[in-house]
Model the fold of this input.
Amino acid sequence: MKTMSAETLQALVTRACQRMGARPGDAARVATSLVRANLCGYDSHGVYRLAQYHEWWKKGLLDPTARPVVAAETTSAAKVDGRNAFGQVVASFATQVAIQKARTSGMAVVTVMACNHVGRLAEYAEAIQQAGLIGLVTVNDSGAGQCVVPWGGRDPRLATNPIAMGIPGETDGGILFDFSTSAAAQGRVRQLLLRGEPAPPGWLLDADGKHTTDPACLFSDPPGALLPAGGHRGFALSLAVEVFSGILSGAGLARTDPGPEEMNGMFILALDVTWFMPREQFRAQVDQLTAYVKTSRPAPGAGPVHIPGENSRAEEARRRKEGITLNEQNWAKVAGVLRDLGLPDDLPSE
Amino acid sequence: MKTMSAETLQALVTRACQRMGARPGDAARVATSLVRANLCGYDSHGVYRLAQYHEWWKKGLLDPTARPVVAAETTSAAKVDGRNAFGQVVASFATQVAIQKARTSGMAVVTVMACNHVGRLAEYAEAIQQAGLIGLVTVNDSGAGQCVVPWGGRDPRLATNPIAMGIPGETDGGILFDFSTSAAAQGRVRQLLLRGEPAPPGWLLDADGKHTTDPACLFSDPPGALLPAGGHRGFALSLAVEVFSGILSGAGLARTDPGPEEMNGMFILALDVTWFMPREQFRAQVDQLTAYVKTSRPAPGAGPVHIPGENSRAEEARRRKEGITLNEQNWAKVAGVLRDLGLPDDLPSE
Done:
């Protein structure tokens, strides 16, 4: 266990990305994204991912010096080619393209290929939300990462294919969500395995296709699989994500011979509400909706109702003050990269 | 129980709508939609709904003579005012507006207010799909129909807020889905109650907020509530539906003093894929995806994997051949309307 401030981790990751060849601004972009994921409580998308990026870089799959480009565009659509740059750099670029086009045209769709791993998806939906627009973002794994069964099936055929959305509010932070279309994200199952806890029923099938609560089944050989979220609903949404992020982007769809895992294909939709109503009126109505929904009394044993996005904001505030605690495994991954890049790896807890 | 051909039911409903004042084309539109819902296996959105429309017409809430209008528009967006015409007439009109705009502009967003009940949502997503475009359609209840709790809450605050999507394929019918963002649609719970069967765990809370499998709880006084589908995921999607269909349309959002139930607010998004890739290439890749997903062996006890939309197509083919069987309750509702409108109600089973 090591506890560090966001600033310290930010500096560490920035330096590491620069050593891999990234320009200072791009390195800071990657660091900000990864640290922000830790701050918001999503350690599965936090700084330990640096090890994966470092490995890809060594294999020539990631080019830290590359810049994403708009490969083709209309007034309201664009195809971004990430040229295998850092995923966070590509996704931020593509998000800005979507925001600009939506401001001009009312709405915009941007697809992204060759973008490696974009990190925490909510970040891009939030950027669109903070620009005062509605943002919808989806990623697939360019056809790889198949750990989720189709509804009724036993052989995994789909990745966890997440969906994120940001809707601006006035004072209450609006609505911001980011969820896998599988019953759980793979990272959550791994956490349960590490803690020696069972998974809730309805999350997992073992390699024989039988329901199980054993989180180890997902990482055994042959592996079990995740079920889709909400049965046929998660399956349907996952197929839609595959079409948006894998087919429309050109990044690649689920198939028998996909490339390496977690190389995302991305789809971004941004919608300017001002054509429908004045922005302030929209924001006020979103706040009215969330305030009304929160008047529902808690279910027995539950805390007050939270609007999607609220919990991560609270967690971010807490971790900004108290620091980010990385477990041994996470820190070992970061330290390994630092060592390999000739950077000091014996930092104290703060 | 009464079994009738689709043609007989179509003629009956058309005549009834004309008696309420609808033009022949509009009456046929409503009939086609309702009968098609029965054909596809969704009796909850089928011809028995005529009774509800008839009641609204008597109360002056539904104007069968009205025509929907485009209240405002840009090249890629439109606000449709349904003027309280039949929902199916309004929704079909709005869907055509979306298709036309998407063909010109690459994508289009259309919102709809004052449209009564639009019926089976998949119909509109399918119309967009059949035009070769990707369609996303959502409806709320203009703020009423609150039977779903927010995640973690016990007092219902949201309607079942469904989402439908249509994605064109080449030979395999593509992908077509339509699901509530609640753990189940209200109609399915009512069916269980009628059959005296318990609901699966995870669908319902009783009036005290405790988990229950008793379908009666949803219709008791005070009523219980439905849980969101997939926990926080269904809750998040439901909020998004509320924003799209209730706020952007002007139809109204969930609040303390909503209007009558099942008066939908609607949101339609249509996306032309040809800007991203040739249409035939897109269709072929969708088929490639669905074919690959279907190679997943069935889970123990399950049949072959079905792509969303497949089951309703099979059911439609079967019922077109074998006829539509209405249970006593459903037929009684239709017969009551026919009687009230001075039409013969003593039709034989076919």
Summary: Chain B has a mean pLDDT of 96. Chain B touches chain A through 78 residues (CB under 8 Å).
